[in-house]
Design brief:
This is Zinc finger DksA/TraR C4-type domain-containing protein. GO terms for molecular function: zinc ion binding. A zinc finger (dksA C4-type) spans 85-109. The chain has 2 domains: 3-82; 84-115, no CATH class. Helix content is 67%, strand content 0%. The relative contact order is 0.13. The protein is mainly α and 115 residues long. Helix 1 (3-28) packs antiparallel against helix 2 (43-79). It binds zinc ion (ZN). Zinc ion (ZN) binds next to helix 4.
Length: 115
């Protein structure tokens, strides 16, 4: 199997994992509970549910962003630019790609971008 094909399979399986995680998060969101609006919960429960909802939304946002990055990584494999830093054009070390396969930047660019 070619390296590209291997990476693609890995990225595809990561996407599937994210879909499962997103579904689980949505299911655990108290706001998704159809009885939520009418359950006349105490203020305490409302606050707890609000917090849970916000945490879940934040987690879903992170996962959605990752999903999007993986899609870009898959397109970059087809274009032949996968594994190359989008900012400085240097080759991203294999070790880093093994850790974060969807990364589009080398460590130094990533650090520069956070600043
Ligand atoms: Zn770079």
């Amino acid at each position: 199997m070619s390296k590209n094909k291997e990476t693609k399979l890995l990225l595809e399986s990561e996407k599937e994992k994210i879909v499962v995680q997103l579904r689980a998060l949505k299911d655990s969101d108290p706001f998704e509970d159809p009885t939520h609006v009418t359950d006349n919960a105490s203020v305490d429960t409302d606050v707890r549910e609000q917090e849970a909802h916000q945490r879940i939304e934040a987690e879903m946002e992170t996962l959605n962003k990752r999903f999007h990055d993986i899609d870009i990584a898959l397109k970059r494999i087809d274009k032949g630019t996968y594994g190359t830093c989008r900012r400085c054009n240097k080759t991203i070390p294999a070790k880093r790609l093994a850790l974060i396969p969807e990364t589009m930047h080398c460590v130094s660019c990533e650090e520069e971008m956070i600043k």
